[in-house]
Amino acid sequence: MPKLLHVSDLHFGTPYLPRVGEALQRIAAELPIDGVVVSGDLTQRAKAEQFEAARKFIDQLPDVPKLIIPGNHDVALYRLWERLSKPYELYRRFIDDRLDQVLDLPGMRLVGLNSTSPRRAISNGRIHLEQLEFCKRAFTDAPNGTARIVVAHHHFAPAPDFLHDEIMPKAKRAMEVFEELGVEMILGGHLHRAYIGNSLDFYPGAKRNRGITIVQCGTSTSRRGRGREKEKNSFNVIDVGGHDFLITHFMYFDDVHGFVPQSEHRYPRRDIAIGESESAGLGSDDTAPRTLLMPRTNSDR
């Protein structure tokens, strides 16, 4: 069963917590992972020294394939001329020249989409039509049974809590395309707290079959946690099985000076080839996700 390590919102700069970063490196070295996803906001203010520190941190993670995408904090906010004329210059120099990219791992294909929109929607982000076309091309030749996973920094659905975050503009348009393409999972960040659920919670409809599993990561190494993860840190490990996904949510606790599993969430995969859903009657039964919660005692949730 291949495994992904999903981290996000490192925020190198003033908010970065060295003790938490060191703890993440320790546990990452112990996990039997096949790939790493970093879903944006590597830096706090998109400065060269922050990108350099983020690059060093990423290079110290296990030597497995990695998919990294930028977040809104990875483009200059107050350096207006830079944001409008060359918003990704430092990101490209230190992290990756590719803003949208594809990564193939055993049993899965990941498509990373740059949801930052420096000239239009710097906070809430945007997925443009040409990126959806890129996504279509990327999944065209994915073999049947391959887990189709999209990675974007900004969220397509709000966390189900009291903070009432605004979703990305045109999020519903993107979700319609993802459903047509047979996308099974979306990985993201930006919210600074974890949310693991299903798109049917927000985009119900008869044609949406089982929905799409949504896995939002909190801030893995900074003090900028929000909501139920206020001033807390987290990451996810995703096991991709033939019939289901198992997502293990890890949180950092000071009393153990490290990350420990906080909960497990199991969601069924699409069990048939893309394009056969109508003849097979997909969505008529067993559509609800199966979730197993394992709260840590005295965890100050």
Low-confidence stretches: 272-301
Give the helix level as a range of percent.
10-25%
- Report the biggest beta sheet as strand number plus sense, adding barrel if it closes: 7 strands, mixed
Number of helices, where a helix is a run of at least 4 consecutive DSSP H or I residues: 7
**First-last Cα distance:** 30 Å
| Tally of separate domains | 1
Structure notes:
- The protein has one domain (3-292): Metallo-dependent phosphatases (Purple Acid Phosphatase, chain A, domain 2, 4-Layer Sandwich).
- It is 21% helix and 25% strand.
- It is built from 7 helices and 13 strands.
- The strands form 2 sheets. A 7-stranded mixed β-sheet has the order 3-2-1-10-11-12-13. The protein has a 6-stranded mixed β-sheet with strand order 4-5-6-7-9-8, with helices on one face.
- The longest helix has 13 residues, at 18-30.
- The chain starts with a strand and ends in a 9-residue tail after the last strand.
- Residues 272-301 have low confidence and may be disordered.
